[in-house]
Write a structure and sequence with these properties.
disordered N terminus, mitochondrion, six-stranded mixed β-sheet, EC 3.1.2.4, branched-chain amino acid catabolism, ECH_dom, ClpP/crotonase-like_dom_sf, alpha/beta
Length: 385
């Protein structure tokens, strides 16, 4: 069909324009046929490349299905010793899922809101339980679904270009993909702070937080990858040795961390409360510029999302990853039926007026009964592993 279309075009143009028409058609064909995710066997490893650079490698259901299937195949393949995942384009590892498509699908009564979350969480669990060393090169923007593709793996490599955030409370959602498992396990109350405010950690702070296991200068990533691929039948210890050698040679200690050197005491004291209202009051009483700024940020978020998120992390702190993912699947389905997620998508991604009208608009109007409804069992529709 593509060739026929090209020849029809050629019949309508003068000969001196034919070359440019052919080139343009080929470019269009290549663009439309480009795979969203590249899956390659190279050296000792299976290499996954998220390949939607124009969309910051945002995760689609099709990508989730391809990655899961290939991950399971490589896990059983005796000639594959290592799995590497990275993003194309240089700007992002993965900026998250396509939440606009989720909102549109729900309004159209399609099944995407069930299928995507269910299959994404099953993939997150598969990464966590993968029997082969799994190396995520989190160079660039890593948010939402991109966090789920990386943080549960054995090795996560940050660079000075890494930008980590879980900004979901600002769109009427919550930090899912296992956020209820890994966030409360970060040092002190850091995870609670990141979850409620959507604060962006950059560069070396992604490693200092424990989100990354190693830090490597971005200019060395290509050489690092080639060295990993050249390993002969490597064990996890062999992979760790290569990563540590690059980590040790990095320029990591050149920059000081404002968050970790100046604000961790405030974060630990203010975010240790068991209610969102008390966290806000703690920030107000602290009165420092940092605390006041975080209070302003929190006050812009969905009140329902804030309360869901705090309970999610408190409960998740004592659950297994699978138990957390089951809990989070329940919450997603309730959020899809609610008001705030669709309003957040409208305000941030569609109309872009950045002024969502949350319902309820105040924390005091989000009752315990409301909150409980987000966590209740879905019966036979619950997530299963």
């Amino acid at each position: 069909m593509g060739q026929l279309y090209a020849w029809r075009l050629l019949s309508r143009v003068s000969s001196f324009r034919r070359a440019s028409v052919i080139l343009q058609h080929l470019r269009m064909s290549m663009h439309t046929e480009a795979a969203e995710v590249l899956l390659e066997r190279r050296g000792c490893a299976g290499v996954i490349t998220l390949n939607r650079p124009k969309f910051l490698n945002a995760l689609s259901l099709n990508m989730i299905r391809q990655i899961y299937s290939q991950l399971k195949t490589w896990e059983q393949d005796p000639d594959t010793f290592l799995i590497i995942i990275k993003g194309a384009g240089g700007k992002a590892f993965c900026a998250g899922g396509d939440i606009k498509a989720l909102s549109e699908a729900k309004k159209a009564r399609q099944n995407l809101t069930q299928d995507l979350f269910r299959e994404e969480y099953i993939l997150n669990n598969a990464i966590a339980s993968c029997q082969k060393p799994y190396v995520a090169l989190i160079d660039g923007i890593t948010m939402g679904g991109g966090v789920g593709l990386s943080v549960h793996g054995q090795f996560r490599v940050a660079t000075e270009r890494s930008l980590f955030a879980m900004p979901e409370t600002g769109i009427g959602l919550f930090p899912d993909v296992g956020g209820g498992y890994f966030l409360p396990r970060l040092q002190g109350k850091l995870g609670y702070f990141l979850a409620l405010t959507g604060y962006r950690l950059k560069g070396r702070d992604v490693h200092r937080a424990g989100i990354a296991t190693h830090f490597v200068d971005s200019e060395k990533l290509r050489v690092l990858e080639e060295e990993l691929l050249a390993l002969k039948s490597p064990s996890a210890e062999d992979v760790a040795g290569v990563l540590e050698s690059y980590h040790d040679k990095s320029k990591m200690d050149q920059d000081k961390s404002i968050i970790f050197e100046e604000h961790m005491d405030k974060i630990n004291s203010c975010f240790s409360a068991t209610t969102v209202e008390q966290i806000i009051e703690n920030l107000r009483q602290d009165g420092s510029p940092f605390a006041i700024e975080q209070m302003k940020v929190i006050n812009k978020m969905s009140p329902t999302s804030l309360k869901i998120t705090l309970r999610q992390l408190m409960e998740g702190s004592s659950k297994t990853l699978q138990e957390v993912l089951i809990m989070e699947y329940r919450i997603t389905q309730a959020c899809m039926e609610g008001h705030d997620f669709h309003e957040g998508v409208r305000a941030v991604l569609i109309d872009k007026d950045q002024t969502p009208k949350w319902k309820p608009a105040n924390l005091k109007d989000v009752t315990d009964e409301d909150l409980n409804s987000y966590f209740k069992s879905l019966g036979s529709s619950d997530l299963k592993f």
